[in-house]
User: Which sequence fits this backbone?
């Protein structure tokens, strides 16, 4: 067999991630590879830490990308902060809280679950009651933006509850970073991880993290070694930490880091508040079109993520057939439901570079055409106009 170069098709990525990558980032990634200890590379790393502090809105010293996807950022937080025998309160209102539970168990610790219905925010009263009932809990872990359902939880209040009860907080901000207001220092979050392929419009494969001083102190004062050599922050900080000396830990993904640097420069140029506003604005336009068609959102308005729109699939409509046609005929990817929501919802992402007027109108036009052609019970021919009207109002 003679394999040839792989040339992927051009798609519009409006699912739960990866989202469309800004071409500036792809161009940055194609620049010459240099050594990961090259002084110029090290200077770029230092600048990246500042840019990450801006993105996270944090003044914590530790802000760096883990050299692996969001799931590795999650694991980095758990393996460093949680030791065997610890108790961790885990909030679950979708897929990712379940993965946090897995992480706690694999650390040899005990998860105490606070469960909420999928599609709802984490219930603060339940968290408060659980923390009261478990005064020995060490960590409160939750997902800020649940990508599996499209619900946002109140990270500020959850961080406050954790502190009031003497716990550290671990927050998953994979989908919120760059898309929804997130103020790590002001809210007092302790260990926060994210991803590059959602609202930062970068390629998948890196996980920015930031840790508070008290989180670092906890890592330094562990009684047991971190069970993961690769993720042990005591070692990783020899490379990413401050100071002139950088010790080899692992070979940094040099070109991927050029990409993240560019993504963060783009975020700084736009201004983070403007990025948050843009996500809202495009969500409102998509919503106008979706509702004009007679389709319904899954999540209550007050808890809805602008960057991940969960829409109920109308009765009798074949989920996979619609998504298949969108991909084939329009080069458009939207997401399917996960777990108990599989087959009953679509997840339309408006993340990062993909959150723009052209994509909103493409998605509404394509959905309208496909659903109308399939004789689905929707209002035909009105979605695009409804969104256009909304954009005109928001001018
Ligand atoms: C995408 C996502 C992850 C996992 O990130 P990967 O890069 O796929 O490992 C974790 N949490 C949330 C909320 C996500 O949306």
Assistant:
């Amino acid at each position: 067999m003679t394999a040839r170069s792989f040339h992927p098709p051009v798609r519009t990525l409006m699912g739960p991630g990866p989202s469309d990558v800004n071409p500036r980032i792809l161009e940055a990634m194609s620049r010459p590879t240099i050594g990961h200890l090259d002084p110029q590379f090290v200077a770029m790393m230092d600048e990246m830490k500042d840019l990450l502090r801006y993105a996270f809105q944090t003044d914590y010293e530790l802000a760096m990308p883990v050299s692996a996807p969001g799931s590795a950022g999650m694991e980095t937080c758990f393996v460093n902060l949680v030791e065997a025998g610890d108790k961790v309160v885990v909030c679950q209102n979708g897929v990712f809280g379940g993965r946090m539970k897995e992480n706690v168990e694999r650390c040899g610790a005990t998860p105490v679950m606070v469960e909420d219905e999928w599609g709802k925010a984490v219930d603060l009263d339940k968290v408060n009651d659980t923390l009261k009932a478990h005064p020995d809990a060490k960590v409160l872990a939750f997902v800020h933006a649940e990508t599996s359902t499209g619900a946002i939880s109140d990270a500020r209040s959850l961080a406050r509850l954790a502190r009031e009860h003497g716990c550290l907080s671990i927050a998953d901000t994979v989908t919120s970073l760059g898309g929804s207001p997130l103020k790590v220092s002001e809210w007092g979050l302790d260990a926060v991880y994210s991803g590059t392929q959602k609202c930062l419009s970068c390629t998948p494969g890196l996980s920015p993290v930031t840790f508070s001083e008290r989180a670092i102190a906890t890592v330094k004062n562990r009684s047991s070694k971190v069970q993961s050599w690769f993720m042990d922050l005591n070692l990783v900080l020899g490379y990413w930490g401050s100071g002139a000396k950088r010790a080899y830990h692992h070979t940094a993904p040099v070109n991927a880091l050029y990409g993240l640097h560019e993504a963060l420069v783009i975020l700084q140029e736009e201004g983070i508040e403007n990025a948050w506003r843009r996500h809202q604005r495009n969500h409102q336009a998509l919503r106008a079109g979706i509702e004009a068609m007679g389709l319904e959102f899954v999540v209550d308005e007050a808890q809805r993520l602008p960057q991940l729109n969960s829409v109920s699939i109308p009765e009798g409509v074949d989920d996979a057939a619609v998504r298949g046609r969108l991909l084939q005929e329009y080069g458009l990817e939207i997401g399917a439901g996960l777990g108990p929501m599989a087959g009953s919802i679509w997840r339309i992402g408006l993340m990062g570079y993909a959150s723009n007027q052209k994509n909103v109108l493409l998605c509404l036009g394509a959905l309208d055409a496909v659903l109308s052609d399939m004789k689905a019970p929707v209002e035909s021919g009105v979605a695009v106009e409804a969104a256009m009207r909304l954009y005109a109002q928001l001018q």
User: Anything to note?
Assistant: Residues 23-269 form a domain with the Aspartate Aminotransferase; domain 2 fold (CATH 3.40.640.10). Residues 272-292 form the longest helix (21 residues). The mean pLDDT is 97.
